[in-house]
Each structure stands twice: as C-alpha cells, then as structure tokens.
Amino acid sequence: MTDRLSRTPIDAALTDAALTDAVRMMSHA
Q: Distance (Å, rounded) from C-alpha 15 to C-alpha 21?
C-alpha cells in the first residue's frame, strides 16, 4: 500500500473494494 500516492483515486477505490471483499469472504468462511 506504499504506492497509494502514485495511484489514481479510481485505482485506490478498486483496490480498497477488492480488499474489503476479500476480508468479507474470509470472515464468512
């Protein structure tokens, strides 16, 4: 996550959404 400043807000939003989905999947597993 050290490259957050070099990414566009869209890239950051997509990555955050993917991480959130992954955490949700693991928590329900």
A: 10
Helices (H) and strands (E) in the chain, counts: 1, 0
The SS3 of residue 18 is: helix
pTM of the model: 0.54
The rounded distance, in Å, linking the Cα atoms of 19 and 16 is: 5
Q: Tokens for 25, please give them.
A: 């999947």
Quote the pLDDT of residue 8: 85
Give the closest residue to 16 by CA, choosing from 26, 27, 4, 29.
4
